[in-house]
Amino acid sequence: MRAFISAVYLFLYAPIALVVLFSFNAGRSASEFTGFSTMWYGKALDNTFLVAALQNSLIIALTSAALAAIFGTMAALGMERLRPGARAVLDGLLAAAIVVPGVVIGIATLVALVEVFSFLNPVLASIWPGGNPPQLGLGYGSIVAAHGLFSMALVTMIVKARIASLGRDIVEASSDLYATPLTTFRLVVLPQILPSILAGFLLAFTFSFDDFIIAFFVAGSKTTLPIYVFASIRRGVTPEINAIATLVLVASLMMILIARILMREKKPTN
Amino acid sequence: MALATNTKRGIVTAALVAPALAWLFIFLVLPFIAILVFSVGERAPEGGYQAAFTFAQFANLPSRAAAYWNTLILAPVGSFLCLIIAYPVAYYLAVKASPRYRLILVSLVVVPFWTSLLVRTYAWMYLLGSRGIPNLLGMIGIEDVRILNTPGAVLLGIVYGYLPLMIMPIYVSLEKLDRRLLEASADLGAKPVSTFFSVTLPLSLPGVMTGLALVTILLLGEYLIPQLLGGGKVFFIGNALVDLFLQSRNWPFGSAIAVTLVVVVVLVLLIAMRIAWRIAGTKQVDLV
């Protein structure tokens, strides 16, 4: 049994380890290790397209995760106050946001936005004072919106689970001691749910940063890091892609580790 | 006074859920209505969409039968392969592993799931490509092995990508299992094997069902793994959708396929929940 378990862990990590190893290859080859070098990292970071894609990905991931954390937390707080019927509707929509495949989310958002833009752009042009009306189009906004949909549902689920485990008694104790609802929220509820909000934010960031398929549809002319990596892979395998892949791995690894540490803190209350 | 408090409470509640509700409506409900409308429309001559009410797109679905077959066979098969490997791992983590290392071992399973699937699939493209494993096999005399761009490569990628997601729910259900039941079974003279089959396995079935449902549902919409490891020869519904929307620009037909994909996902979810409720005897099913 132990041998089997070890084999599974090897299976999970060996391919990643090889990608990382060959990112430090001195030669051009992706199969023969000819010496240690960090030249491919230098090459990758000199690549202006790559750096632009990385910037786009960071902006999109930060924005969508921040919006998801705020709106998701608000929804989680509001949902326990809703009537059961309304709560079930919201629960269903949130579950749908998580379950519907990314490829469908991408397509549906693309189709809907293109229609809305083709309706709004002429309207804008006709009512715009002066010469240059703004052209609405795909880009940052559409990716943030589509990523935020899944992320918000994710944050809501995580924070809701945390609130459910809180117990009403501390909130009641607080109001018995004449704290206003706002004070109770600030001093009692918020500190308790903050780790789960942060964990939700980090998972949302990781999701957005790693997502390829949704962005592929709604990015318009913008390039995110996964879109760039995907395009490079189709051109052929080089140690430069390994270097980029390693950077992506390290970034998401840090996020997920911090998120897991934050989420673990929920145990002591019981 | 009470009425005023109630109204105020209602306003606060509404303000809290309003942004989420608006977001869900604008970027989930509305887009879904849009693809429903598109799916009964016609393709405009220059590509894109022309208003109509026809089921021609749905009638045309058999022309993409291969994508449906690949998806509907490889997704459940891949999911079961994941289960076969995942169960012993989950069992070991929950029952056998020493508590000292359990946390780190569990983390090591979770972490790959949250790191880029693109990069992890690339790793296999790299390993299975002509300079990888086939090259090594060539050195020991086994020539001309092609792994990349076969259904086997896609299944390998699936198992690699989704194993963590299968291990976690099974681990959670095994961890919750009351150890006293196992002791009771042993005290009553059951052998370990029969304890496993009559106590442990049935009680972990909700986790197994959750894992199967999650992995199957995600696989139904998979694009990257068949794209990179199937190389256009083993394609899924997701690959057909990308082709129809971004290359051949037949949006109405693509919308019809997207609608059927959602229907399949919902069906799988309903069946899984049905079975899970029957097994658990309750409506409490953990999804994460």
Note down, in words, how this protein is organized.
- The complex is a heterodimer of chains A (270) and B (288).
- Chain A folds into 2 domains: 1-37, no CATH class; 52-269, MetI-like (MetI-like fold).
- Chain A has 11 helices and no strands.
- Chain A has helices at residues 2-23, 39-46, 48-79, 84-99, 102-127, 140-164, 169-176, 181-210, 213-218, 225-235, 239-264.
- The radius of gyration of chain A is 23 Å and the shape is globular.
- The two termini of chain B are 43 Å apart.
- By secondary structure, chain B is an all-alpha fold.
- Chain B is 76% helix and 1% strand.
- In chain B, 44% of the residues are buried.
- Mean pLDDT of chain B is 87; it is low at 283-288.
- Chain B has a single domain (66-280), classed as MetI-like (MetI-like fold, Orthogonal Bundle), CATH 1.10.3720.10.
- At the A-B interface, helix 1, helix 3, helix 4, helix 5 and helix 6 of A face helix 1, helix 3, helix 4, helix 5 and helix 7 of B.
Brief description of this entry?
Chain B: Its main location: membrane. Helix content of chain A is 78%, strand content 0%.
Number of strands of chain B: 2
Number of helices of chain A: 11
Mean pLDDT of chain A: 88
List low-pLDDT spans of chain B: 283-288
CATH topology of the largest domain in chain A: MetI-like fold
Just give the CATH class of chain B. Answer: Mainly Alpha
How many structural domains does the protein architecture of chain B include? 1
The number of helices of chain B is 12
Strand order in the largest sheet of chain B: 1-2
* Domain unit count of chain A: 2
CATH class of the largest domain in chain A: Mainly Alpha
Average pLDDT of chain B works out at: 87
* Percent helix of chain B: over 70%
CATH topology of chain B: MetI-like fold
